[in-house]
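Usage

Read records sequentially. Each one opens with the input sequence:
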Amino acid sequence: MPLQKFLFRPGINKEGTAYSNEGGWFDSNLVRFRKGLPEKIGGWVKSSINSFQGTGRALHPWVSLNGTRFLSLGTTFKYYVLDGDVYYDITPIRSTDLNVTTFAATSGSAVITATDTGHGAVVNDFVTISNAVTLGSGGNITAAVLNQEHQITGVPTANTYTFTASATANGSDTGNGGGATDAAYQINVGLDVYVESTGWGAGTWGEGTFGSATALSETGQLRLWSHDNFGEDLVINPRFGSVYYWDTSGGTSSRAVELSALSGANLTPTKALQVLVSDIDRHVVCFGADPLNTGGTARTGTLDPMFIAWSDQENVAEWEPKATNTAGSFRLSAGSTIVGAIRAKQETLIWTDTSLYSMTFIGQPFTFSLNLVNEGVGLLGPNAKVNTPKGLFWMDKKGFYTYNGSIQEIPCSVLDYVFSDFNQGQSYQDFAFVNKAFDEVGWFYCSANETVVDRYVVYNYEENLWAIGTLSRTCWADEGVFSDPKATSSSSAIGYLYNHETGNDDDGVPMTNVFIESSDFDIDPAGEDFQFINRVIPDIQFTGTGNTGSNGQTINVVLKRRNFPGEELTTAVTSTCTSVTTKIDTRIRGRQAVLRIESDDDGESSTTSGVGFRVGAMRLNFRPDGRR
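and closes with the structure output:
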């Protein structure tokens, strides 16, 4: 028989069986579709050799008035501003206790016990000690060892906590000391996984009795951040926490402060689920804020998850509604909690757990109008939505949607694959991203048995194609202010920032487990007789910086076979392919076959670092064969 051309339909389709999708692609990892053809995605490299503390949860790039390019980063533990290659810690201070903290050390241990009545700290919080004196006389726990930032490792009581010093105490260090010591406590850290806000496991360790309910709180919940620019400055909010302001003119040595600490602050919210600055009219809006008390003289301090409050126009400090300003508030009715909000074209879209609202600026006396767009489509998590050049995209608990003046559900060829192996309990960790250079929007999420993000699903909105894969990222910022997309990855409370779409490798080493695999196709056109495949003519375009030729870039061409759809696939041929490979001789017999293009199972060798590939029309030579 003559050679048969196989140009598989673009996009991954897992909605049917591998056999029913004959002629298409069925599985992939670290591969995208561009102009209808599959190719390896771009690589990534660390954007800075410096690490940050905690898991990155939010990135926000912007440019100051003097042209400085900043990137702010909110993590589980801290809030940073990246300037150049340096992470500057601008995490707000929760409280400062003066002249009250004392310390105790045990000989042979580096663990220090601090006593500070009603300190309010939780495990992993950060405290900066100053004005401490050396413990004892001639000991190792000197003033220099104490007078620095420490991460709290234990909270035995409401009046004591422990941290690990940089030196081990000796016999001269025992006892109490530092009676004139000051302690500056940063805002409480949040959790790294989502915990329902009631019952065992909610709240901080030791809070309440076994099984008791706890209210939504900043410390007892997954740490998520929202942030936005008010001019060149930042408005920052840890979900369920207070709202903070960072003045760029104060420099990277200054910390963010609560809105209530600003000059002229009046009735500023004390808690919020999300903060956003409205387009053009420049109102600071808090979604899920604490309302005013009955007399309108103070905030209640209790977060209402359906309540929205906004400041006076062009005034981040004034929040009291008056006849002479545009500050105000209203409460949503459809749903039980606001999940997230985002600026869209001349409107702000707000999701509750069951509905979508549109908020539009109309000026005085009402300031904003509110319209219920849809009841029945919610938002999976606070960060599961993103703006793209083709409109707004988001993910809810049962599908993917787009909005460009009206809501449309996106047909998805991997829908069952995603939602049948999906950890709904960790949906607040999931986040949407856009990669404009490749017309892609996607979502990183936790698979069913994972409590950290480990998978992604990508939609090419120009070609209506889907791809899937495994990769651990925790937040993303597309190109714009910076030339490449940026994303974070964290491990053991230490995280790194990566530039994506850079080269073809994983931070200087070859990527592993890169592949694209077809659905089953009949070797015999009728699907009845056994056939023999004895030759493959590859059509692979190699890209990247690796050497070309027979000793250069290398991938594997794999053929698998089976005789019936119910049988397990058997790998029949694995053959290397380079840029000069003209044919691959094979010996494979069966009724059905699968074609797979992959990097080496153990990763590309050092000689093929930098390899990229694009798959075209493969040709296979068939001939009839007996059953034996």
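Summary fields computed downstream for this record:
- The chain has three domains: 3-27+511-624, 97-186, 223-242+253-500.
- Residues 546 and 610 are 5 Å apart (CA to CA).
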